[in-house]
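Page 37, top half.
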Amino acid sequence: MIEPSIPRTKREFLKRLKEARIGDPIAQYDVALMYANGAGITKNLEQALHWTRLAAEKGHVSAQYLLARSFQQGLGTVQDPVKALTWYQRAAERGNEKATLKLSMLLSQPQNEVAFKYAMDAAKAGLPHAQMAVADQLSKGRGGVAQNIDEANAWYRSAAEQGLASAQMALGKAYEFGIGMASDVGEACRWYRRAAAQGMPAAQLALQSLDELTGRHSSQGKKTSKRPSSRERRLADSRWVTYASKGTAEDFYHLGIMFESGIGVEQSAKQARLWYLKAAERGYVSAMVPLARLVADPSPAESVRWLEKAAEHNVPEAQFALGKALQKGVGVVKDLALACCWFAQAARAGDAGAKFELTEILQANFAALSQSWILAAAHSGIAQAQYAMGQRSAKNNDSQQDWGQACKWYQLAAEQEHAEAQCALATGYLAGLGVERNIAMAFYWFERAADRGNACAQWNLGQLLAVGIPGVPQDSKQAMLLCKRAANAGFVPAQATLGMLFAKAKKYDRAAEWWAKAANQHDLEAQYNLANAYQKGLGVKRDESTAFEWLLAAATGGLAAAQARVGLAYATGDGAVLDPIESAKWLMLAAEGGDASANANKQHAKSILSPAQWVEAERRVGNWTVASAK
């Protein structure tokens, strides 16, 4: 449709084109509109986009809004939600109310604080649809916004008083069910009636429901004793269908509900499909899932088509149903990897069924699916999958190339606040694996992960603070606090470190307490330190036998220092039965593990053993090596 302000003739077009070419943004916008509407020139959406972009880049706010809409709808270009968002934001920042509202709607799929801010700006500017969006978010407490029923009702009222039917409907519900206010059926009827007068089927159904539950209400909402006759009901039902059939996509959707459920009209699946289809074709997402359900039997392929559209709008129910269709090959070629992707998206939104299906598929088909699904999900921006790809790359081998790829995946997930990825990325920076060694960056990512409660990051951060790093002074108190948090969360290395920090502060009873917790969970350093505590009576009663037991546990786990001490214990009988062959065995293992003192002691052990005894000691070393490798 040609806007009245657009020049209409070829002559006018050539004049504005000349002005546009010398850089006049107003003329560039006019030329864009003329190309878009075929006014004075053949319609050409690509040229319209070109001139719109030029005007937008010069700060023409209407052009910025039009450019955003073009990218959103794919007018003259491919659809690009990111570019649409960018241009809506630029127009919104210059005070364009329609852009502010569009921006809030675009951002409302992943409900977040940014979306709420833009919606609130538009609401304060008086836009009723924005007020409705703000009220919905406040009433449900979504997207990091605290639930506030009173404030939500205030915004519903503001939008309702401006004539927005959906807000009038919401306010009617609040009065009917006493949501944030005293229940008042009369007020509920008053607001339902105002919405119904605009042809809103949901409001008309609500009025009918109140009539059936409480009897008829007068125009003032007061209850009367007379109930509606069958003829009155048929006439009312007929009027509602007439109102809705001339209404919006939302009205068509509610008509579909009426016919599918037989509320106020004769139940008819065929009529329900018809009205759902009308709503869905107008882009009403809520109608797409029931439409897909109703057309599934006669046309599974069409059902899948509507599920895809709804799934792309982040409807978890549609994502789950689409995953099931792909899983079973109903209406679409069977594709388990793609099914996993849709199940994953539904699972992220909290769909329990999707989580179960995803687990079942991956367990049954892990070898075939894990790589393709994880990679697809990672490329789709799912942080958990990006982290998994990082883990996979890091485990391939220790080459810098694989660690470099791992850190790229970790970075993507870390920027989405995935705590494990943040910790892994920090580890890369700390050790110089895959990225250039950078202690400051390691500290930064450890700190972000620690703030999100990641125990491993808290432990690493505590260790860095315990020794101090360039730019960050030593802070024993903060190091202790961070290690305590990680230790209390059950992170075993932190429990062992906490024991060391307490020992350093000469609080040996606390040190022994934490070493015992970590030692019982097979931490070798903790077992070794606990053995020392029992041997010297630090924080615990001196006990040579218990000290040896913990040394043996650490030695069996492969700690060379503990193996050397166990070898000496068997040689001297301190806490253990004298056994020169067993002594030689542990000294040989300790020497292989790099313990310097064990190498000299091994030679001494060999000098006092017979050749047969030494062969037996070597046999035991071989048996231990085989057993420990299993």
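Page 37, bottom half:
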Amino acid sequence: MRGLFLVQVVFSFAVIIFSSSLYSETYIDDDWEVLSPNWTDGIITSVIKDSNYLYCGGAFTNINGVSANRVARWDGTQWQAMGQGFNGPVEKLCINQNGVLFACGSFTYSGGNQRNRIAQWSGSNWSAMGAGFNDGVYTMSISGDNVLYVGGKFTQSGSTPINRIAYWNGSTWIEPNLGIGSTGDYVSAMVADSNGNIYAGGKFSSAGSVYANNIAKWDGTNWSSLGTGVNSDVYALAITPDGKLYVGGDFNLAGGINVNKIAVWDGYSWSALDLGVNGRVNVILPVTVDSIFMGGIFNYTGNGIGPNHLAWWYQGSWKSITNGITGMSEQVKTLFLDINGNLYVGGSFYTAGGKLSYNIAKLKKPPVFTVTYTADTGGSISGETTQNIMRGNNGTEVIAVPNSGYIFNQWSDGVLSPSRIDMNITENKSFTAYFTLWNEGQPEGEGAIEGVIEGEGFWEGEPEGIAEGEGITEGEIEGNIEGIIEGEGVAEGSVDGNNEGTTEGNPDGIIEGVYEGEGTVEGIEEGTSEGEGVEEGESELMAWIEGETYIHKVVGESHTFVVHIQGSHGNVNYEWYHCQDYLCSSPTIISNALGQELYFEEFSIEDTGWYWCQVSDDFNVVETNRVYLHVSHGLSVGIVARIAAVLLLFICLYSIKRQTVY
């Protein structure tokens, strides 16, 4: 037993060690709002809301200091009792399309009036619905045609046999074609789809005359199974906008495939939802196809994210929701999303997001920020130019597209790549793409194009383009050409040019040179002395950091920034900088960088910020593009911790082996 315990400990440790979360927190602890800070004395099993009130049902008799028997409502400021409540637990509340509120459970009275496990709220008290039922009613659902269906453990309504499922025709309860299951079975979850079908889940092996393993479908006339069903109890059913049925409970097989407490039925076959969760699922709440909340008794999703009984399947991956809930016998039993996107959570817990909440709390919708992209003269934006993004989420790709005759220059925040995806949005932002005319894009450059345009002729124009920017060999070409054109002859140019260039000094060669020799010597000298010779004329120093503009890492990971250069002359020096803000005035100089490479062995949160390098050679000093590094807390760790986890596992296995031998 000791060896088995050690394996369990190591397994839990390994789940933490080998898991990593690369997501920013969309929800934070401060998003929780407390509705009951002063104690609620029983579990809350159902929460629902209309335009006026939030309604709660459960096993409590006191909610936040207000006496209320198993049902209460919140007006936004305080809790209120609802009539005389009930003498037993409420399992479920629902509201039909006419705004009528229903309650079901294990109760038999409201005050002195008999209410057998089902009742309707009149606005001031609870009224009976026919003869009710002889045993617990655990779940309810409203069909598309506004019919109320109920399921539970009951076998009669008054003297009429009704097996565990029924619907209300306005005056009496009716059983759908022989009902569900046999002695000891029950229905604990129901949901209606847009086609008029009702799905029922629970603990049973038949529906009507059809074999159905814990889940079945009623189409208004007949029962049918969903493949081979699931191998244990179903507690939660929900349908997403794309028509898929999500099923939660205590099972680990669905249609014969391995699943962990949650599975998906697409109308034809079963599939797992990633690696599922490690404990019972009580409730599933779809918001969109890509956003589904779940509550239950689990502590971890299958990939190691610790949701503390409240999980979120978002855009194809699990996400944790703050610190979840905590308490002695904590579990989430009910979830409800209001029209403003706020999530209400009910169950058995003391805190929500670290705040004393006592069985009910509100998780406010995170703020939404707007990111806009505009194009300056000379281009346009491809992609969604106005993006409304929930806090902590990422935007979608946009591309700055230059018009004909233009080239992309940079974004207003200094990003040099025309394509960008802005990530981890926590404020409103606006970016402008700047473009440059093609012939202006080569610094005064410029080269042959401007030379021809501004020059007085082909020969003189081309050297002038080089002179101002610097073409290939300004001094040499201009000197030679002017020497020939302005000189009195080749011979004189050769003799006088050489003599005068030598006697009067090289600088006079370009200005006063009349001959080929003088022009050549002086042109080279002046080009060099004025920075227009080898350095400026031949090629300009360029430097850039390779890779993406935005880099995301978690604590403990490593990375190397690498600078590439082009057109350098002489000795090249590198000086690396770091700053939290893009336009900071006092960046930090990184002293331990090795030339072209800046290496981080293990990142920490403090390493987040902008990085760039200043590169210099014998003639110029340039700066690279700036790269943003975001370091977040995650569950991934360095190789040492991973090795330690493996060693611990081996130790436990060795311990078991020894106990087996001895």
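Margin note: Confidence is low (pLDDT under 50) at residues 1-24, 440-537, 635-646, 656-662.
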